[in-house]
Specification:
This is EamA domain-containing protein. The chain is an all-alpha fold. Helix content is 71%, strand content 0%. Helix 5 packs antiparallel against helix 10.
Length: 290
C-alpha cells in the first residue's frame, strides 16, 4: 500500500512542480534550471549521507550515480526542454510509453514477471494516455519553434526524457533488489550523480538565476523544488523499492490525468472523450492494484 500511495503522491507533486518550471523555461535554459534545482534539493537532503556507511558496496553507489546521470541529469533536462516546447500536460502525456517500456525492461533485465491482469491494466493505462494526448492534436497554444509539417520533431525531447527516466528507474530498482539502502539515501546519491554530470557539461559555470527573480517567483521556484525534486524523487524511490518497476511506473504515469487540474491555466479544453478515457485509465489502474 505504501508503494501505491507514494506513486500517486509523486505524480501529484511532480505535476505541480512541472507547472511552475514551465513558466521558468521561457526565461532560462533547461540545463540551468535542472542544475540549480538539483543542487538545492541535494543540500536539503545532505543529512541522508550520514547513513552512507563505509561498508556500503561501491558498486551500488556507482549504479546510483549512473542512475542519477541518466534519469535526473539527462532525463529532467529533456523534460524541461519539452515543457518549453509543448506544455505541461502534453509533455506528461508522452508517458503513454513509459508503463510498457518499464514493464518490458523489468521483465527482460531483472526477471520481474507480471501477471496477465497487471499486463492488461498497463496496456489500458497506456492506451488511455495515448488517446488523451491524441485528442489534443493542436499546437497553437504552445511556444513552438517547429512548423506543423515537422511537428513530430517536438516529441523528441519528451521521448528521450521517458527513455532516460525508465533507465534510471531500472537501475534504482536493481539496487533495491540487491541491497538494504534507504530511499532517502539513494535519492541523495542520484542527485549527486546528476549534479556532477550537469556541472561538468556546463564547464563548471553556474548560472544562479534565482537571485534575478522576484521574491514571489523565488518562493514558487523553491516550493517546486521541494515538491518536485525532494519529495517527488524520494516518493519515486519508495515506489521502486516497494513495487515491480512496471506496476510502479504505471501508477507514476497518472501525471497527465492530474495535470487536468491545470488545463484551464494552459487554455486546454477538457472534452467528454478525455473524461471518458480518464475513467478508462482508472479501470486499468484498478486491475494493476487489485
Amino acid at each position: 500500500m505504501i508503494g501505491i500511495l507514494s506513486a500517486f503522491g509523486a505524480a501529484t507533486s511532480w505535476t505541480f512542480a512541472c507547472f511552475i518550471w514551465r513558466s521558468q523555461t521561457q526565461k532560462y535554459k533547461s540545463i540551468d534550471i535542472n542544475l540549480i534545482k538539483n543542487i538545492i534539493a541535494f543540500v536539503v537532503f545532505i543529512p541522508a549521507l550520514i547513513n552512507l556507511f563505509p561498508a556500503t558496496e561501491l558498486k551500488y553507489i556507482f549504479i546510483l550515480l549512473i542512475s542519477g546521470i541518466i534519469g535526473i541529469g539527462l532525463g529532467d533536462t529533456f523534460y524541461l526542454k519539452s515543457l518549453q516546447t509543448i506544455g505541461t500536460r502534453k509533455t506528461l502525456s508522452i508517458e503513454t510509453l513509459s508503463p510498457l517500456m518499464a514493464a518490458l525492461s523489468g521483465e527482460i533485465f531483472i526477471n520481474e514477471n507480471l501477471t496477465p491482469k497487471s499486463w492488461i491494466g498497463i496496456i489500458i493505462v497506456s492506451i488511455s494516455l495515448f488517446i488523451i494526448l491524441k485528442k489534443e492534436n493542436d499546437f497553437k497554444h504552445a511556444n513552438l519553434h517547429f512548423s506543423e509539417k515537422n511537428s513530430f520533431k517536438i516529441f523528441t525531447f519528451p521521448f528521450l526524457s521517458v527513455l532516460c527516466a525508465v533507465i534510471g528507474g531500472l537501475f534504482s530498482r536493481m539496487v533495491f533488489l540487491q541491497s538494504n539502502l534507504s530511499p532517502l539515501l539513494t535519492t541523495e546519491i542520484r542527485l549527486l550523480g546528476a549534479i556532477i554530470f550537469l556541472i561538468t557539461l556546463k564547464g563548471f559555470k553556474l548560472n544562479f538565476f534565482l537571485k534575478n527573480m522576484e521574491k514571489k517567483q523565488q518562493k514558487r521556484f523553491l516550493l517546486s523544488i521541494l515538491l518536485g525534486t525532494n519529495l517527488g524523487i524520494l516518493l519515486q524511490q519508495i515506489v521502486f523499492k516497494s513495487l515491480p518497476i512496471g506496476i510502479g511506473w504505471a501508477l507514476l504515469s497518472t501525471s497527465p490525468v492530474i495535470s487536468l487540474l491545470f488545463a484551464k491555466n494552459e487554455e486546454r479544453e477538457i472534452t467528454k472523450k478525455i473524461i471518458f478515457f480518464t475513467c478508462f485509465l482508472f479501470l486499468g489502474l484498478t486491475l494493476i492494484i487489485l
